[in-house]
Amino acid sequence: MSSTVDSPISSSKIQIHQLDRLAPRSAFLLFYAGHPPHQTMISSLSARHIARIARQQPLRLFSSQDSLVVTNVHEESGVAVLAMNRPPANSLSLELNEAISTSLKQIESNPKIQSVILASSNPTIFSAGLDITELISPSDERLPKFWNSLQQVYIDLYGSRLATVAAIQGHAPAAGCMLALACDYRIMHGGHGEEHLPTIGFNETQLGIAAPPWMGQLMVRTIGFRPAERALALGTLFPPSEALNAGVVDDVITEQSSSESNEVLKALLPEALQSQTSNPVMIKAYEEAACYAKIPPQARVASKLVTRSESLKEMQMTREDDTQHFCGFITHEVVQKNLMKYVEKMKQRGKAKKS
Ligand SMILES: CCCCCCCCCCC/C=C/C(=O)SCCNC(=O)CCNC(=O)[C@H](O)C(C)(C)COP(=O)(O)OP(=O)(O)OC[C@H]1O[C@@H](n2cnc3c(N)ncnc32)[C@H](O)[C@@H]1OP(=O)(O)O
């Protein structure tokens, strides 16, 4: 038996072939069909259940509005998109970190996909870094779990078999910058006039904290020792042109979106990102991702291992110590005071903006 299900969240159609007999592979089947996956919800439905609903009515696996991450794959070009979707600022909570790792692994499990674009459904913020509320008066149980989930995102992104391209539409401070630096290629939007320039960098010292060694070293490996040493100490947030000059990003796109939407992007982007089909950062990110996807994968992955395996090994070896340092540091009284002050300032700024 074969039936087709109209997906409410993308224009793609899912072919369901003899789904009743594919119980253990149902999530895979949906994923291969190009449907944005959401592991929790998919795994909570049995294949038999899905098949029954599929015969009767359009299948709504999840709503893109309440997914922390939205994904889609375009097998023809070998490119996928993984977009963070946690309003208002894509700040990294335990759950968002886990969703990024899970979705990346799901994309990796499709042998037809060679590249992934890491993007944001927010057109002005790539990611605001760690969710600062995770750091204030944290519980003893959640804090190490939270940090572990961030380490895991780094390991998964930096060590991915996929070519990873960061489409940085807007701000990317601290751990938001880490996500971008863990990718293979970074494209940043040049901003809309001098007053609305997005920035990228490790601003931790401005919050009274310091980037952990693996994050700091990521900047060192990207822009070189001396510039990184200075940027880390000062907590520099680079506007686009400075980020390009320093080598924090590989490309800056200053042109405005055109009115014509790009046909490939229409097929590639998840519904939550359909407004970005004429966005020059996305267009460039797709071109770059497709370019990587054409390189013989074994050779591409081997070359990535040459530059990344040592630091990944080091990360694995020091991971537990890193978690202990982090928890000790964050729960220190002085650090807690600094963080509270910072959040207070952030809230005041938000209020002033709204009034
Ligand atoms: C020896 C070893 C020791 C190891 C020790 C380790 C120590 C820890 C290392 C941690 C490493 C990583 C750290 C981080 O990532 S910390 C987070 C850093 N991020 C920031 O500082 C960004 C703060 N946000 C901003 O500057 C702006 O919001 C931004 C430029 C991103 C966007 O500005 P915009 O004007 O467009 O938007 P708003 O400011 O109005 O923000 C919208 C709403 O989002 C909320 N928000 C923003 N950022 C965060 C955040 N990071 N966490 C939680 N919430 C955030 C903001 O409050 C607004 O909310 P409301 O709409 O409710 O007002």
From TrEMBL:
GO terms for biological process: fatty acid metabolic process. Signal peptide: none annotated. It is found in: Mitochondrion matrix. Keywords: Acetylation, Fatty acid metabolism, Isomerase, Lipid metabolism, Mitochondrion, Transit peptide. GO terms for molecular function: delta(3)-delta(2)-enoyl-CoA isomerase activity. Pathway: Lipid metabolism; fatty acid beta-oxidation. It catalyses: (3Z)-decenoyl-CoA = (2E)-decenoyl-CoA; (3Z)-dodecenoyl-CoA = (2E)-dodecenoyl-CoA; (3Z)-octenoyl-CoA = (2E)-octenoyl-CoA; (2E)-tetradecenoyl-CoA = (3Z)-tetradecenoyl-CoA. It comes from the Eukaryota. GO terms for cellular component: mitochondrial matrix. Belongs to the enoyl-CoA hydratase/isomerase family. This is Enoyl-CoA delta isomerase 1, mitochondrial.
